[in-house]
Design brief:
elongated; 7-stranded parallel barrel; 379 residues
Length: 379
C-alpha cells in the first residue's frame, strides 16, 4: 500500500513538473513571439532613427569643412629699403608669400627715396600680390598724415600708385577708435594693424567697418608655435613686422656689393631664420583651386612646433584639424575673412534648419517607438 502511495506521489510530482515545464515553455514561446513581433515593428523605426543621427553627424562635419576660413599671414616691412626687392622678395616669391609695404612721409619711407624702393619696384610688388600700408607717427595729426601719404603714392612719377586701405600703429595705445575711426573711414581706410601683446591675442577678430588685427615681430620667441596654432585656427590673421634698422624685428642680409665673388653665397643668421620661417609657412599654405594646390604642393609634413614634446602637446585638442594658411596681403586678408564670416553665418542658418527638420523626424520616430513599447507592456 505504501509502495503504491509513493508511486502515485512520484507520478503526481512528475506530472506537475511536466505541467510547469510545458507552461514555462509555452510562456517563453509566447514571449518570444511577442519579442519577435516587437522587434519587427521597432527595428525599422530604430534603423530610420540611426540613419537620421548619422545624417546629423555628417552635417556637422560638413559644416566644419565648408565653413573653414583658413588663417592668413603677411609680412609688413616697416621701411622701404631696396633690400626688400633685391633680397627679401626673391625668397618670399619662391615660397608664394607676399608682403605689405609701409609708407610714411613723416618717417621718410616712400618710393624713390634714398636707398629706397623705386616706384617701378614698388608697383611690381603690388602687381605680384603685395599691398601698401600707412605707418602712423606722432609728427602730425592723423588726417594730415594720411593726406601726405596719399599724395606720396598717387604722385610717384608716372606710376600713379593706389592709396593704401590699412594703417599700422606701432603702439596700440596710440589708436583711439572713437576719435580716429571717422577720419580713417573718410580716407577709405578699413583696416588697423596694432602691435599685439602676444601672437594670439589679436589673431581672431571680428571684421566690421574697421577691422583690427594684430602684429608681432617676425622673430619673437615662440613664433613657430604660434604659426602652428594659427594654421589650425579658423579665420585668424597675424601680421609679422620686419625692419632693417630696429633690433626688435630686424632682418639683415649680406651686403653683396661689399663682398667678394667667393663670399656672395654667404647668408646671415637672420636670413637663415627668416628663410626657415618662410619654409614653415609655405608647408601649410593652401590654394583656392586644386591645380594650383598640386603645383605648389610640398612633400614635407607640417613641422612640429619647436620645443614641444608629445606629452605636453597643447595642440592635442585640434590635432585632427589640418593646418591651413594663406599668405595674402592685408587688403585681401580682410576681404577673405569678411566673406568667410558671411559664408559661415549663411551655412549656420542652413545647418540649423536641416537639424531642426531632422530632430522633428527623430522625435516622431521616438513617439512611435514608445507607443509600441507601451502597447507591448500592457499585454
Amino acid at each position: 500500500m505504501k509502495t503504491l502511495l509513493r508511486i502515485f506521489l512520484l507520478l503526481l510530482v512528475a506530472a506537475l513538473l511536466v505541467g510547469v515545464f510545458l507552461y514555462v515553455r509555452n510562456t517563453e514561446d509566447a514571449d518570444s513571439k511577442r519579442m519577435e513581433e516587437l522587434y519587427d515593428r521597432v527595428e525599422p523605426l530604430q534603423q530610420q532613427k540611426d540613419l537620421l543621427l548619422q545624417q546629423k553627424e555628417q552635417l556637422s562635419e560638413d559644416l566644419t569643412k565648408d565653413s573653414r576660413d583658413p588663417s592668413t599671414v603677411q609680412f609688413l616691412f616697416r621701411e622701404l629699403n631696396s633690400e626688400i626687392y633685391t633680397d627679401a622678395y626673391p625668397l618670399m616669391r619662391a615660397r608664394n608669400i607676399v608682403g605689405v609695404l609701409g609708407v610714411s612721409g613723416d618717417l621718410y619711407e616712400y618710393p624713390d627715396g634714398s636707398y629706397k624702393l623705386s616706384s617701378e619696384q614698388f608697383l611690381r610688388l603690388l602687381r605680384d600680390g603685395w599691398s601698401a600700408c600707412y605707418m602712423y607717427s606722432h609728427s602730425y595729426d592723423l588726417d594730415t598724415q594720411i593726406k601726405t601719404n596719399e599724395t606720396i603714392l598717387t604722385t610717384r612719377s608716372l606710376t600713379k600708385l593706389p592709396p593704401a586701405t590699412a594703417i599700422y600703429f606701432s603702439e596700440a595705445s596710440d589708436y583711439v577708435p572713437e576719435q580716429m575711426d571717422p577720419i580713417l573711414k573718410a580716407h577709405g581706410i578699413d583696416t588697423v594693424i596694432l602691435d599685439a601683446d602676444d601672437g594670439r591675442s589679436l589673431a581672431v577678430t571680428e571684421v566690421g567697418d574697421i577691422w583690427v588685427t594684430g602684429a608681432m615681430p617676425w622673430s619673437y620667441t615662440g613664433v613657430s608655435d604660434d604659426i602652428e596654432y594659427l594654421a589650425r585656427t579658423d579665420g585668424g590673421n597675424l601680421t609679422f613686422t620686419v625692419s632693417f634698422n630696429d633690433l626688435w624685428d630686424q632682418l639683415d642680409f649680406v651686403d653683396h656689393e661689399a663682398q667678394s665673388l667667393y663670399q656672395r653665397e654667404q647668408t646671415t643668421d637672420s636670413e637663415l631664420a627668416f628663410t626657415a620661417m618662410l619654409d614653415q609657412i609655405n608647408s601649410m599654405i593652401v590654394y583656392d583651386d586644386a591645380i594650383t594646390q598640386y603645383v605648389h604642393a610640398t612633400p614635407s609634413p607640417s613641422p612640429t612646433p619647436q620645443g614641444m614634446k608629445p606629452e605636453d602637446n597643447e595642440f592635442a585638442w585640434i590635432e585632427e584639424i589640418d593646418p591651413q594658411l594663406k599668405s595674402v596681403n592685408i587688403t585681401d586678408a580682410r576681404s577673405q575673412h569678411s566673406a568667410g564670416n558671411e559664408n559661415t553665418a549663411l551655412l549656420n542658418q542652413e545647418y540649423d534648419a536641416q537639424i531642426a527638420e531632422i530632430d522633428a523626424q527623430i522625435a516622431e520616430l521616438d513617439r512611435q517607438i514608445n507607443a509600441i513599447y507601451a502597447e507591448w507592456n500592457k499585454k
